[in-house]
Amino acid sequence: MIKFLVDFSTANWMGILWCALIGVGLGLILGLILFLCGHFLEVKEDERVAAVEKMLPGYNCGSCGHAGCHEMAEAIVKGEAKKLSVCRPGKKDKNYDPIIAYLSEHPDKDGNYQIPEI
Ligand code: SF4
Hints:
The N and C termini lie far apart (about 85 Å). The protein is about 50% helix and about 0% strand. By secondary structure, it is mainly alpha-helical. It binds iron/sulfur cluster (SF4).
């Protein structure tokens, strides 16, 4: 005969069931709150940042003075980075010219163009 450490015959099954239901209910409510926060509080990034970042070399070396290519792309799009040549690994035909061409065709939401120099 097998003996268990816990005597299941005297377990409070209703208490266990309520604990499980409360745990599942809390999980669902908190999950719903997280979903709603993610949906309504989402900060949308300027889509030009991702496009410009793809045109940068992608080494994330920081020699441009920014933490990485993403931050450099943000600075370019905002007009804070005036010269593309601060990106030392960048090449004129492969990186700088495509970025200038792209930003010449894609103004910000107010219709202003932030076109950096080489
Ligand atoms: S210098 Fe160029 S490759 Fe290096 S992090 Fe800056 S943008 Fe990226």
